[in-house]
User: Fold AraC family transcriptional regulator from Streptomyces spiralis.
Amino acid sequence: MNRYGPGTGTLTVTVFVFPGVRLLDVTGPIEVFASANEFGGRYRVRTVSEDGAEVITSAGTRISADLSVDDVREPCDVLLIPGGPQWETLVKDDAFLDSVRRLHEKARCTASVCTGAFLLSAAGLLDGRRATTHWRHAQQLALRFPSVRVEPDAIFVRDGRMMTSAGVSAGIDLSLALVEDHYGAEVARAVAKDMVVFMQRPGGQSQFSVRSQVPHTRQAALRRVLDEVAENPGGNHTLSAMARRAGVSVRHVTRLFYEEVGTTPARYVEQVRLEAAQVLLETGDDSMPVVARRTGFGSPESLRRAFVRHLGVTPGAFRAGFRTTGVGGTDSVSEAVSR
Assistant:
Protein backbone atom coordinates (compact mmCIF):
# COMPACT_ATOMS: atom_id res chain seq x y z
CA MET A 1 0.00 0.00 0.00
CA ASN A 2 1.25 3.46 -0.87
CA ARG A 3 0.91 5.41 2.36
CA TYR A 4 2.60 8.55 1.15
CA GLY A 5 2.00 9.28 -2.54
CA PRO A 6 3.16 11.82 -5.10
CA GLY A 7 2.09 14.81 -3.01
CA THR A 8 4.21 13.76 -0.06
CA GLY A 9 6.79 16.23 1.18
CA THR A 10 10.47 15.40 1.27
CA LEU A 11 11.28 12.20 3.15
CA THR A 12 14.51 12.08 5.13
CA VAL A 13 16.77 9.03 5.10
CA THR A 14 19.54 8.92 7.69
CA VAL A 15 22.42 6.53 7.01
CA PHE A 16 24.64 5.79 10.02
CA VAL A 17 28.25 5.28 8.92
CA PHE A 18 31.16 4.13 11.05
CA PRO A 19 34.78 3.00 10.59
CA GLY A 20 34.86 -0.35 8.80
CA VAL A 21 31.32 -0.11 7.42
CA ARG A 22 30.74 -2.17 4.29
CA LEU A 23 30.69 0.15 1.28
CA LEU A 24 27.80 -1.42 -0.66
CA ASP A 25 25.65 -1.56 2.48
CA VAL A 26 25.78 2.25 2.35
CA THR A 27 25.94 3.08 -1.34
CA GLY A 28 23.39 0.49 -2.57
CA PRO A 29 20.45 1.96 -0.62
CA ILE A 30 21.59 5.54 -1.26
CA GLU A 31 21.59 4.84 -5.00
CA VAL A 32 18.02 3.49 -4.77
CA PHE A 33 16.74 6.61 -3.04
CA ALA A 34 18.68 8.93 -5.36
CA SER A 35 17.32 7.09 -8.40
CA ALA A 36 13.80 7.32 -6.99
CA ASN A 37 14.10 11.10 -7.06
CA GLU A 38 14.37 10.88 -10.85
CA PHE A 39 10.99 9.14 -11.04
CA GLY A 40 8.82 11.17 -8.71
CA GLY A 41 10.26 10.42 -5.29
CA ARG A 42 11.39 13.14 -2.92
CA TYR A 43 14.15 11.86 -0.69
CA ARG A 44 16.80 13.72 1.23
CA VAL A 45 19.65 11.42 2.22
CA ARG A 46 22.10 12.37 4.93
CA THR A 47 25.04 10.45 6.38
CA VAL A 48 25.73 10.56 10.10
CA SER A 49 28.78 9.37 12.01
CA GLU A 50 29.32 9.34 15.77
CA ASP A 51 31.44 12.49 15.78
CA GLY A 52 30.64 13.93 12.36
CA ALA A 53 34.01 12.94 10.90
CA GLU A 54 34.53 10.99 7.69
CA VAL A 55 34.96 7.24 8.00
CA ILE A 56 36.99 4.68 6.11
CA THR A 57 34.97 1.72 4.86
CA SER A 58 36.07 -1.92 4.89
CA ALA A 59 37.00 -1.41 1.23
CA GLY A 60 39.32 1.46 2.13
CA THR A 61 37.07 4.12 0.59
CA ARG A 62 36.40 7.30 2.53
CA ILE A 63 32.83 8.41 3.20
CA SER A 64 32.11 11.87 4.53
CA ALA A 65 29.45 12.50 7.17
CA ASP A 66 26.93 15.33 6.98
CA LEU A 67 26.26 15.35 10.71
CA SER A 68 27.34 13.92 14.03
CA VAL A 69 24.89 11.99 16.19
CA ASP A 70 24.67 15.01 18.53
CA ASP A 71 23.71 17.22 15.57
CA VAL A 72 20.68 15.08 14.69
CA ARG A 73 17.72 16.84 16.27
CA GLU A 74 14.88 16.48 13.79
CA PRO A 75 13.08 13.19 13.13
CA CYS A 76 13.70 11.13 10.00
CA ASP A 77 11.51 8.80 7.99
CA VAL A 78 14.10 6.03 7.59
CA LEU A 79 17.18 5.23 9.65
CA LEU A 80 19.54 2.83 7.91
CA ILE A 81 22.07 0.84 9.93
CA PRO A 82 24.56 -0.89 7.60
CA GLY A 83 26.87 -3.72 8.57
CA GLY A 84 30.58 -4.33 8.49
CA PRO A 85 33.18 -7.02 9.18
CA GLN A 86 33.97 -5.55 12.61
CA TRP A 87 30.46 -6.03 14.00
CA GLU A 88 31.76 -8.28 16.82
CA THR A 89 33.70 -5.33 18.22
CA LEU A 90 30.86 -2.87 17.75
CA VAL A 91 28.30 -4.97 19.66
CA LYS A 92 30.51 -4.53 22.75
CA ASP A 93 30.86 -0.75 22.35
CA ASP A 94 28.31 0.80 24.70
CA ALA A 95 28.80 4.34 23.36
CA PHE A 96 28.28 3.14 19.80
CA LEU A 97 25.12 1.22 20.72
CA ASP A 98 23.80 4.26 22.55
CA SER A 99 24.23 6.25 19.32
CA VAL A 100 22.17 3.63 17.50
CA ARG A 101 19.41 3.91 20.11
CA ARG A 102 19.40 7.71 20.00
CA LEU A 103 19.07 7.74 16.22
CA HIS A 104 16.35 5.08 16.39
CA GLU A 105 14.30 7.25 18.74
CA LYS A 106 14.04 9.89 16.01
CA ALA A 107 13.12 7.48 13.18
CA ARG A 108 9.73 6.38 11.88
CA CYS A 109 11.35 3.24 10.46
CA THR A 110 14.69 1.71 11.39
CA ALA A 111 16.28 -0.71 8.91
CA SER A 112 19.48 -2.72 8.82
CA VAL A 113 21.58 -4.27 6.08
CA CYS A 114 23.49 -7.52 6.52
CA THR A 115 25.30 -7.63 9.90
CA GLY A 116 23.66 -4.35 10.88
CA ALA A 117 21.07 -6.68 12.44
CA PHE A 118 23.66 -7.54 15.11
CA LEU A 119 23.98 -3.86 15.97
CA LEU A 120 20.22 -3.45 16.30
CA SER A 121 20.02 -6.63 18.36
CA ALA A 122 22.83 -5.58 20.69
CA ALA A 123 21.05 -2.25 21.17
CA GLY A 124 17.94 -4.17 22.27
CA LEU A 125 15.86 -2.94 19.34
CA LEU A 126 14.95 -6.36 17.92
CA ASP A 127 13.91 -8.08 21.15
CA GLY A 128 10.82 -10.18 20.49
CA ARG A 129 10.86 -9.30 16.79
CA ARG A 130 11.39 -11.24 13.60
CA ALA A 131 14.60 -10.44 11.73
CA THR A 132 17.09 -11.67 9.17
CA THR A 133 20.74 -11.17 8.26
CA HIS A 134 23.31 -12.62 5.87
CA TRP A 135 22.85 -16.39 5.60
CA ARG A 136 26.39 -16.99 6.86
CA HIS A 137 25.59 -15.19 10.12
CA ALA A 138 21.96 -16.16 10.71
CA GLN A 139 22.72 -19.00 13.12
CA GLN A 140 25.10 -16.84 15.12
CA LEU A 141 22.51 -14.06 15.35
CA ALA A 142 19.99 -16.55 16.72
CA LEU A 143 22.48 -17.94 19.25
CA ARG A 144 23.74 -14.56 20.45
CA PHE A 145 20.32 -12.98 20.70
CA PRO A 146 17.76 -15.69 21.53
CA SER A 147 15.02 -13.08 21.98
CA VAL A 148 15.25 -12.31 18.24
CA ARG A 149 13.25 -14.61 15.96
CA VAL A 150 15.66 -15.12 13.07
CA GLU A 151 14.36 -15.97 9.58
CA PRO A 152 17.53 -17.16 7.81
CA ASP A 153 16.17 -17.43 4.26
CA ALA A 154 14.29 -14.13 3.96
CA ILE A 155 15.72 -11.37 1.74
CA PHE A 156 14.22 -8.85 4.12
CA VAL A 157 11.80 -8.89 7.04
CA ARG A 158 9.48 -6.16 8.32
CA ASP A 159 8.26 -6.30 11.90
CA GLY A 160 6.49 -3.14 12.96
CA ARG A 161 8.76 -0.15 12.50
CA MET A 162 11.82 -2.39 12.20
CA MET A 163 13.19 -3.86 8.96
CA THR A 164 16.20 -6.11 8.51
CA SER A 165 17.75 -7.46 5.33
CA ALA A 166 20.13 -10.16 4.22
CA GLY A 167 23.67 -9.73 2.95
CA VAL A 168 25.03 -6.69 1.14
CA SER A 169 22.95 -6.36 -2.04
CA ALA A 170 19.78 -7.18 -0.08
CA GLY A 171 19.95 -3.58 1.13
CA ILE A 172 18.86 -2.66 -2.39
CA ASP A 173 15.86 -5.00 -2.12
CA LEU A 174 14.89 -3.47 1.21
CA SER A 175 15.26 0.08 -0.13
CA LEU A 176 13.11 -0.71 -3.16
CA ALA A 177 10.43 -2.00 -0.80
CA LEU A 178 10.56 1.29 1.08
CA VAL A 179 10.27 3.25 -2.18
CA GLU A 180 7.19 1.22 -3.09
CA ASP A 181 5.76 1.79 0.36
CA HIS A 182 6.38 5.54 0.08
CA TYR A 183 5.59 6.28 -3.56
CA GLY A 184 3.97 3.19 -5.05
CA ALA A 185 4.91 0.25 -7.25
CA GLU A 186 5.32 2.28 -10.44
CA VAL A 187 8.11 4.40 -8.96
CA ALA A 188 9.81 1.36 -7.42
CA ARG A 189 9.54 -0.50 -10.72
CA ALA A 190 11.12 2.40 -12.59
CA VAL A 191 14.02 2.43 -10.12
CA ALA A 192 14.48 -1.35 -10.39
CA LYS A 193 14.58 -1.20 -14.18
CA ASP A 194 16.96 1.76 -14.10
CA MET A 195 19.31 -0.16 -11.81
CA VAL A 196 18.75 -3.45 -13.68
CA VAL A 197 17.70 -5.36 -10.55
CA PHE A 198 14.65 -7.34 -9.47
CA MET A 199 11.86 -5.44 -7.79
CA GLN A 200 11.25 -8.62 -5.82
CA ARG A 201 14.05 -11.13 -5.83
CA PRO A 202 12.52 -14.60 -5.84
CA GLY A 203 13.65 -17.57 -3.80
CA GLY A 204 15.07 -16.12 -0.62
CA GLN A 205 18.77 -16.41 0.13
CA SER A 206 18.96 -19.75 -1.69
CA GLN A 207 20.09 -18.03 -4.86
CA PHE A 208 23.86 -18.19 -4.62
CA SER A 209 25.50 -20.46 -7.19
CA VAL A 210 25.23 -24.18 -6.49
CA ARG A 211 28.58 -24.84 -8.20
CA SER A 212 30.31 -22.14 -6.15
CA GLN A 213 29.24 -23.86 -2.92
CA VAL A 214 31.04 -27.09 -3.80
CA PRO A 215 34.50 -27.28 -2.21
CA HIS A 216 37.36 -27.72 -4.66
CA THR A 217 37.85 -31.44 -5.13
CA ARG A 218 41.15 -33.15 -5.75
CA GLN A 219 39.33 -36.00 -7.46
CA ALA A 220 39.85 -35.48 -11.20
CA ALA A 221 37.10 -37.96 -12.05
CA LEU A 222 34.55 -36.09 -9.94
CA ARG A 223 35.67 -32.71 -11.32
CA ARG A 224 34.88 -33.94 -14.82
CA VAL A 225 31.39 -34.94 -13.73
CA LEU A 226 30.70 -31.68 -11.90
CA ASP A 227 31.93 -29.60 -14.83
CA GLU A 228 29.79 -31.53 -17.30
CA VAL A 229 26.66 -31.07 -15.19
CA ALA A 230 27.34 -27.34 -14.84
CA GLU A 231 28.07 -26.86 -18.55
CA ASN A 232 25.13 -28.91 -19.79
CA PRO A 233 22.36 -29.12 -17.17
CA GLY A 234 19.93 -30.59 -19.71
CA GLY A 235 22.21 -33.49 -20.58
CA ASN A 236 22.05 -37.12 -19.54
CA HIS A 237 23.11 -37.13 -15.90
CA THR A 238 21.72 -40.39 -14.63
CA LEU A 239 23.83 -42.11 -12.01
CA SER A 240 25.07 -44.70 -14.48
CA ALA A 241 25.93 -42.01 -17.07
CA MET A 242 27.95 -40.05 -14.50
CA ALA A 243 29.73 -43.19 -13.38
CA ARG A 244 30.73 -43.98 -16.99
CA ARG A 245 31.90 -40.39 -17.47
CA ALA A 246 34.07 -40.61 -14.35
CA GLY A 247 35.37 -44.06 -15.26
CA VAL A 248 34.32 -45.52 -11.91
CA SER A 249 31.53 -47.70 -10.57
CA VAL A 250 28.09 -46.37 -9.62
CA ARG A 251 28.87 -47.14 -6.01
CA HIS A 252 32.16 -45.25 -6.15
CA VAL A 253 30.75 -42.12 -7.81
CA THR A 254 27.97 -42.06 -5.19
CA ARG A 255 30.58 -42.24 -2.43
CA LEU A 256 32.59 -39.43 -4.06
CA PHE A 257 29.53 -37.19 -4.09
CA TYR A 258 28.86 -37.85 -0.42
CA GLU A 259 32.49 -37.26 0.59
CA GLU A 260 33.31 -34.29 -1.66
CA VAL A 261 29.98 -32.56 -2.31
CA GLY A 262 27.99 -33.56 0.75
CA THR A 263 24.89 -34.69 -1.11
CA THR A 264 23.64 -37.36 -3.49
CA PRO A 265 24.32 -37.18 -7.24
CA ALA A 266 20.59 -36.82 -7.97
CA ARG A 267 20.14 -33.93 -5.56
CA TYR A 268 23.18 -32.13 -6.93
CA VAL A 269 21.97 -32.47 -10.51
CA GLU A 270 18.53 -31.16 -9.56
CA GLN A 271 20.06 -28.15 -7.80
CA VAL A 272 22.17 -27.26 -10.84
CA ARG A 273 19.19 -27.69 -13.15
CA LEU A 274 17.10 -25.51 -10.88
CA GLU A 275 19.73 -22.77 -10.99
CA ALA A 276 19.91 -23.02 -14.79
CA ALA A 277 16.12 -22.72 -15.00
CA GLN A 278 16.23 -19.63 -12.78
CA VAL A 279 18.68 -17.99 -15.17
CA LEU A 280 16.53 -18.78 -18.21
CA LEU A 281 13.41 -17.44 -16.53
CA GLU A 282 15.20 -14.28 -15.37
CA THR A 283 16.79 -13.44 -18.69
CA GLY A 284 14.60 -14.89 -21.44
CA ASP A 285 11.09 -15.34 -22.76
CA ASP A 286 11.16 -19.08 -23.50
CA SER A 287 7.96 -20.94 -22.75
CA MET A 288 7.83 -23.25 -19.72
CA PRO A 289 8.05 -26.40 -21.89
CA VAL A 290 11.20 -25.04 -23.54
CA VAL A 291 12.77 -24.07 -20.19
CA ALA A 292 11.93 -27.50 -18.77
CA ARG A 293 13.44 -29.28 -21.77
CA ARG A 294 16.61 -27.16 -21.90
CA THR A 295 17.34 -27.64 -18.20
CA GLY A 296 16.69 -31.37 -18.06
CA PHE A 297 13.40 -31.34 -16.14
CA GLY A 298 11.56 -32.70 -19.14
CA SER A 299 8.11 -31.33 -18.46
CA PRO A 300 6.63 -28.08 -17.07
CA GLU A 301 5.07 -30.09 -14.23
CA SER A 302 8.44 -31.47 -13.13
CA LEU A 303 9.87 -27.96 -13.36
CA ARG A 304 7.00 -26.59 -11.27
CA ARG A 305 7.39 -29.26 -8.58
CA ALA A 306 11.12 -28.56 -8.26
CA PHE A 307 10.56 -24.81 -7.92
CA VAL A 308 7.87 -25.20 -5.29
CA ARG A 309 9.87 -27.78 -3.36
CA HIS A 310 13.13 -25.82 -3.26
CA LEU A 311 12.09 -22.17 -3.56
CA GLY A 312 8.50 -22.13 -2.41
CA VAL A 313 7.45 -20.36 -5.61
CA THR A 314 6.18 -21.47 -9.02
CA PRO A 315 8.27 -20.78 -12.15
CA GLY A 316 5.64 -18.29 -13.32
CA ALA A 317 5.80 -16.36 -10.04
CA PHE A 318 9.59 -16.46 -10.19
CA ARG A 319 9.56 -14.91 -13.66
CA ALA A 320 7.26 -12.15 -12.38
CA GLY A 321 9.98 -10.87 -10.08
CA PHE A 322 9.95 -7.36 -11.55
CA ARG A 323 6.29 -6.75 -10.76
CA THR A 324 6.46 -5.80 -7.08
CA THR A 325 8.76 -5.79 -4.07
CA GLY A 326 6.08 -7.66 -2.14
CA VAL A 327 5.86 -4.87 0.44
CA GLY A 328 2.08 -4.60 0.38
CA GLY A 329 0.45 -6.74 3.02
CA THR A 330 3.36 -9.07 3.80
CA ASP A 331 6.30 -8.90 6.13
CA SER A 332 8.93 -10.68 4.11
CA VAL A 333 9.75 -11.45 0.53
CA SER A 334 9.90 -15.17 1.25
CA GLU A 335 6.25 -14.99 2.29
CA ALA A 336 5.22 -13.01 -0.75
CA VAL A 337 6.76 -15.34 -3.32
CA SER A 338 5.27 -18.44 -1.74
CA ARG A 339 1.74 -17.42 -2.61
In short: The chain has 16 helices and eleven strands. Confidence is low (pLDDT under 50) at residues 329-339.
